[in-house]
């Protein structure tokens, strides 16, 4: 029994010895590490800062009534293109009872005055025809009659304005007819027929009937971090991406930088505005969210490499250059502008140089 056990142990030891030799052999046969290489390329390097915001019309005009009343008819809908003076809505006046009563009383008094002046006129007209009185004496009755007629017309116009919002002789310029004050597109009609509206005056803003804006004159309104604001200058180019319009970029020119920052989510932001260059192939809707890359500096078509290939030692930039089959050496280079991914190479390598890709 002991002999069998001894033989089993010897066999196990021999098996372990053989497996160790096989493992070492296989390890020696592993393929050597092969490093990938890449070459520099010519590309545009753009150093930029990102601002978030939206695209809005430069001037959005809110059309408000000049009288209070009820919206009787609406003639436009969002998206309609208007010219200055085009009809937007009609408002029915709800007269003030005190003003209405005063206007009606004025009309009644004017009618009485005219009736009295007419009787004086008729009586004295017969006298002047019979040459009992002179034409000069009759003239005062003629003038009084004309004045009474004018007062009646004025009183009736005042009554019409109180009741209808427009005088009889100026029906084409009625305050009840709400018209566009500018050329542009209707962006919103926040009221419906039957709504009560209030006139704009010194005491309240009035009810907006419609908003109109020139959609060919758009601006980007956004915010930029305080760490980047000092790098900005008026006239800088912005490369704008609109979320709703994929795979397209738009340009804009920076024209305003706020002198005062605001706190947003614990950080100080500064508002900026830029004029958007609109083309005829895309319709940009008001309120589209957008990200704008503020171009701080750029180099077009320059030799560049991926910044991950560069190593720095004592302020000097190095790359590993292939000098033989899988043989590399460090070489100093002079770098230029970086966009955070690629970096411009000014000296040290050329477009044919093979560079070691770090694993």
Give an overview in words.
This protein is of the alpha+beta class. The protein has 3 domains: 37-46 and 300-356, conserved putative lor/sdh protein from methanococcus maripaludis s2 fold (Beta Barrel); 49-57 and 215-299, Efflux pump adaptor protein, beta barrel domain (Elongation Factor Tu (Ef-tu), domain 3); 64-213, Beta Barrel (OB fold (Dihydrolipoamide Acetyltransferase, E2P)). Helix content is 26%, strand content 40%. It is built from 4 helices and 20 strands. It has a 6-stranded antiparallel beta barrel. Strands 3-10-8-5 form a 4-stranded antiparallel β-sheet, with no helix packed on it. The chain has a 4-stranded antiparallel β-sheet with strand order 7-6-4-9. A hairpin with a 2-residue loop joins strand 17 and strand 18 (327-338). The longest helix has 33 residues, at 97-129. The chain is elongated and about 170 Å long. The two termini are 58 Å apart.
Key structural traits:
359 residues, 26% helix, conserved putative lor/sdh protein from methanococcus maripaludis s2 fold, 4-stranded antiparallel sheet, Elongation Factor Tu (Ef-tu), domain 3, alpha+beta, 6-stranded antiparallel barrel, OB fold (Dihydrolipoamide Acetyltransferase, E2P)
Q: What is the strand and helix layout of this fold?
A:
Layout: H1 2-28, E1 37-38, E2 41-57, E3 60-63, E4 69-74, E5 81-82, E6 87-93, H2 97-129, H3 135-164, E7 177-179, E8 184-188, E9 196-197, E10 210-213, E11 218-225, H4 226-229, E12 237-242, E13 249-264, E14 267-276, E15 289-306, E16 311-313, E17 316-324, E18 327-338, E19 342-347, E20 355-356
Antiparallel strand pairs: 1-20, 2-11, 2-15, 3-10, 4-6, 4-9, 5-8, 6-7, 8-10, 11-14, 12-13, 12-15, 13-14, 15-19, 16-17, 17-18, 18-19
Helix pairs in contact: 2-3
């Amino acid at each position: 029994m002991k002999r069998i056990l001894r033989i089993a142990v010897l066999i196990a030891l021999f098996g372990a010895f053989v497996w160790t030799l096989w493992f070492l052999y296989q390890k020696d046969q592993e393929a050597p590490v092969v490093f990938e290489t890449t070459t520099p390329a010519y590309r545009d390097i753009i150093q930029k800062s990102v601002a978030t915001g939206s695209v809005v019309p430069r001037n959005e005009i809110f059309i408000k009534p000049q009288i209070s009343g009820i919206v009787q008819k609406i003639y436009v809908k969002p998206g309609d293109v208007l010219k200055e003076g085009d009809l937007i809505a009609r408002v029915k006046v709800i007269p003030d009872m005190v003003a209405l009563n005063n206007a009606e009383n004025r009309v009644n008094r004017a009618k009485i005055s005219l009736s009295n002046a007419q009787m004086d006129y008729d009586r004295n007209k017969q006298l002047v025809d019979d040459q009992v009185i002179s034409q000069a004496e009759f003239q005062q009755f003629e003038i009084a009659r004309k004045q009474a007629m004018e007062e009646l017309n004025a009183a009736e116009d005042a009554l019409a304005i109180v009741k209808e919002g427009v005088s009889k002789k100026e029906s084409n310029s009625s305050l009840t007819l709400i018209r566009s004050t500018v050329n542009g597109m209707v962006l919103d009609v926040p009221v419906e027929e039957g709504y009560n509206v209030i006139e704009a005056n010194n005491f309240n803003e009035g009810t907006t009937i419609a908003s109109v804006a020139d959609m060919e004159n758009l601006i980007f309104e956004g915010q930029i971090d305080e760490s980047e604001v000092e790098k900005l200058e008026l006239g800088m180019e912005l490369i704008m991406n609109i979320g709703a319009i994929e795979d397209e970029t738009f340009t804009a020119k920076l024209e305003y930088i706020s002198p005062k920052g605001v706190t947003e989510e614990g950080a100080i932001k500064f508002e900026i505005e830029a004029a958007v260059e609109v083309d005829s192939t895309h319709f940009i809707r008001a309120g589209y969210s957008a990200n704008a890359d503020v171009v701080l500096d750029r180099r077009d078509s320059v030799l560049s490499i991926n910044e991950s290939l560069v190593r720095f030692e004592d302020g000097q930039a190095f790359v590993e250059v292939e000098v033989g089959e899988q043989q590399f050496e460090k070489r100093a280079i002079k770098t230029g502008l970086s966009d955070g991914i690629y970096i411009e190479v000014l000296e040290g390598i050329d477009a044919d140089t093979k560079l070691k890709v770090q694993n």
